[in-house]
Design brief:
Order of helices and strands: HHHHH
Oligomer: single chain
Structural class: mainly alpha
Number of helices: 5
Shape: rod-shaped
Helix content: over 70%
Number of strands: 0
Distance between the termini: 117 Å
């Protein structure tokens, strides 16, 4: 439009009566030309600034969420490691108890009942002696 206006002015002369109005209208057209061009190509400076601020804000929020996710992953990994350790210890102690019970059952089957009673009596005598020694040390 501005080019057509310049062509018109190069071939025709503006009368002095309408010169002020013509200059005002021409100035407004040329002044709004940048806004029209930005609108045509889809750019509005205010909109670009607003979108840039929004992108920065979203990037900050995204970084914060990524950090929280990393912390939660670390917590889950630590929890899994602790659970595995505790389950392993529980399993080992359970298996140890089973093995110990099997040994006791085999020992109980292999001994004569009279021998077992005699061994229990000897254990009681030893326990009494230990109790007497502890009592003497305390007094």
């Amino acid at each position: 439009m501005a080019i057509l206006l310049l062509l018109f002015l190069s071939f025709n002369e503006v009368p002095p009566v309408n010169k002020d109005i013509f200059v005002t209208v021409t100035g407004m057209v040329v002044g709004s030309l940048s806004v029209v061009i930005y609108t045509i190509i889809g750019r509005n400076p205010d909109e670009v600034d607003a979108l840039t601020k929004k992108v920065d804000s979203l990037q900050t929020a995204n970084d914060h969420l990524v950090n929280q996710k990393d912390e939660l992953e670390k917590m889950v990994i630590t929890l899994q490691e602790n659970m595995i350790d505790k389950i392993s210890i529980l399993g080992v102690s359970f298996i140890d108890n089973l093995i110990e019970r099997k040994k006791e059952m085999k020992l109980a089957e292999n001994y004569d009942p009279t021998e077992r009673l005699a061994a229990q009596d000897r254990v009681k005598i030893i326990e009494r002696k230990i109790d007497k020694i502890v009592a003497d040390d305390q007094s």
